[in-house]
Amino acid sequence: MAEEINAIEVNENYVVELAQELIQIPAENPPGDCSDVAEKILKELQSIGISNIKTYEYEKGMPNFIIQTGDGNPDAGHFVIGGHMDTVPVHPDEIESWKVPPFSGKLVEDEIWGRGAADMKGALASTIGAFKAIQEQKIKLPGILTWVLLSDGEHGDFYGAQSLVNNGILKELNGDMVLYTESTSNNVIRSFKGRIFFEIKVRGRSVHVSVPEKGINAIEKLAKIIDAFQANRIAPEPDPFLGPCTLTFSTIKGGSAVNVVGGRASATFDVRMIPGQESSEVKKQLEEIIEELKSEDPEIDATLEIIPSGAREVTEILEEEPVVELMKRVVPAVRGTENEFLPGIESPGALRLFIENGIPGVFFGPGEFISEAHLPNERVPAKNLIHAASMFATAAKEVCNGPKLK
Hints:
- By secondary structure, the chain is α+β, with helices and mostly antiparallel strands.
- It folds into 2 domains: 12-191 and 314-399, Aminopeptidase; 194-312, Alpha-Beta Plaits.
- It contains 10 helices and 15 strands.
- β4 (107-108) and β5 form a beta hairpin.
- α3 (117-136) crosses α10 (382-399).
- The chain starts with 11 loop residues before the first helix and ends in a 7-residue tail after the last helix.
């Protein structure tokens, strides 16, 4: 790569208006149907001259796309951008909390509001804006620029990135690096906590509440377990950068009627792991805590399971990786301020699948870090979208002009 980076200008109004239009097309997951937003994106790409588009659909309404431009010489560099089309739903109980209609895409004081503004309809608009700038300015790309555009990013990736992995498509892509466009305020996240979704089930014995001593109250036994499951018992020391391991209960169910001692109870909880922890070891530690409780109370009958697809290990790439070094130079070239490394306190999502399949990458996107994504009044600064589009295009030019970086 050249020593000096010259930022590529983008069509600012186009990026902002396209983000607004994409927000106006619901793609809530569940149910996960991305057909309408995908149709809009494909029309935009075709209108700017992008025709190398392959479609992979493993569930009706959940298409995935491999979108490419450039001269196609892999030895000249292969730059990958990743993102998903779906959003979390707008819960009916939250509608009244929105200051603007959630699918309006309204521009309010230089921020674009609406479901998906930060996660990640805005980033989709920035990516298309980057492709548009490259096409219209006839920027030479001897290598390959790929956009992996996914469905099912908000509900486990199974019909999106995971299905591409299962069919060998991500492995065959053989990209040099990837920017996965989650919300980072256009800064690099290269280190991520792991995540485990657990379910614990407790069995008791139901009896009429007038004779509780004849039963075993599963709800009370579960309460003991909840009280004993503390994060500091599985990871006593916080990580200097990512912070502490956390253990948070999220749902609880139990009993059958108000006048019956609860014979069954269950709960789900989330563990965010830090470097040095693995999901199998965390499960073992928690099972040991249950055994300790059983030694004190033999009536406790509990099973602990990791929810299917619920474990994502700690993920990290080195600061010396070319993708990190690249963005440390691209960011100031575009916005005039340095990159700030941010902690990946959320799990790495689909990015981990790229990394596991030979494409090192980072989270890097225009949504504000620790933003209102997933909450009422989700929004994104318009300037972030414009900067991101320029950064994507600038980075692609640097990588795809060879030589190959890995």
